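Bump. Still looking for tRNA pseudouridine synthase B structure tokens.
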Amino acid sequence: MDGILILNKPKGFTSHDCVFKVRKILQTKKVGHTGTLDPEVTGVLPICIGRATKVVEFLTAEQKTYVAEVTIGTATTTEDQTGEVVEEKWVDNPIAKEKILSVLQELKGEIDQTPPMYSAVKIKGKKLYEYAREGKVIDRPSRKVTIHDIFLTSDITYEEENGQVKFSFQVNCSKGTYVRTLAVQIGELLGYPAHMSYLTRISSGDFTIDQAITLEQLSELAEQGMVQEKLLPMEKALSSLPKLEISDKVAEKVYNGAVLPYPENIDESNEYFSVFHEDKCLAIYMKHPSKPGLMKPKKVFHD
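Sorry for the wait, here they are.
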């Protein structure tokens, strides 16, 4: 069994929990995930199986799409619904739709974000959430991310009994974007504390929620011996990398891990590129670090 399984991750499971479940269902150890989702987040989680586990490190999608709910009026330690409340401000009246649409429009394009304390970003060799669990707040550098598109996807609900406003939005963003931080930024622009109260990922690169199956569906397919039909080829996962087509003669050299002349049609600014022969990916190559004009294999895929 080889290929990419698009799993619809359930709520309450870590990405590692999902890998463990898939290993158990498929009775194979060669399973790996390609991009962590927090336990409370649902949606698209690409899982590599068999030979495809060799490409996990190359599958960081440049763009991802999420649907999130933001709660205006309350801020939390984690910036989402799992944290402790640290700030509250009563929303006296419903917030006008035009104002919310204006704020979303303001956030489109390149913006600065400061990673939340409860995140896996490393500062001085230690993850931020480790500092946070010790009760420490660490200065962390902001970084630029890109919001390609963002728009309202629900009605705006005003909860008069607790002075909060809730609404959902869809965002297509660059890798490294924290949607919970985006929810906080929406609140700041509206003049209130805020947090993300729900999140689901509906696409990661070329992989979409329409392709995804649940763990229950995977278990049924395994019983029927039909799992392979739901797996996408490894080559599909590498579509974001520049592609080099080679001849039979060069293919033999690639299989042997040869250092070869750098191809004219691949820009040297690319960190990695895929090497194909007859619609099959044979290897991932890179610019040779010490020999100008040459390329070397990063990974060779033997059958």
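The chain is about 20% helix and 35% strand.

Edit: fixed formatting.
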